[in-house]
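Colleagues,

Please find the record for the two-part complex below.
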Amino acid sequence: QTVVTQEPSLTVSPGGTVTLTCASTTGAVTTGSFPNWFQQRPGQAPRPLIYSTYNKYSWTPARFSGSLLGGKAALTLSGVQPEDEADYYCLLYYGAEGVFGGGTKLTVL
Amino acid sequence: QVTLRESGPALVKPTQTLTLTCTFSGFSLVPSGTSVTWIRQPPGKALEWLARIDWNGDKYYTTSLKTRLTISKDTSKNLVVLRMTTMDPVDTATYYCTRVQESRIENWGQGTVVTVS
């Protein structure tokens, strides 16, 4: 069973920069895994942020960016805002099957 | 405007079969590249990808639950149904249906809470 791993929690100061990563037990994450990133605030459905590694939706704030970093998918937040405090999930595809990471709880403090 | 709405029982007993319906509007499951995916989230836990049905009827399931899941669609009624057999308390979760375009999970329903007890 494929496992996708994310940092369980990260803390960042307002205005700072933080990178969340998403690793796969099958090896290096590539664009062929079509990494997706989602933000979820308490009591809400997840909100899509990034698709296919680095592509943004029209509603994705400019401070969010996606990339591949050291064999992992990465989500970088630059100039973090208090409202960015949330859970973040990555999704990787293995063929047609998707697998979510365990999520990262981002605290802005 | 794309909307998806999940419906089904809020409470099921262990060993029963769960049937959830996703009713959607603002898009059709006809165009190539369009699919509907079911995702769930146990309380306080991570998201879990469950199943997907494509515009052409192709179906995909998460490996760990493959024997218990069945996904189907009625294109004319704009709905997708997910069945999960042999429900257990660990299946207690919020179940979401989503619209997927290529690999993009673009739209989410509000979710429906299912408790197994």
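Chain A has a mean pLDDT of 97.

Comments are welcome before we finalize the supplementary table.
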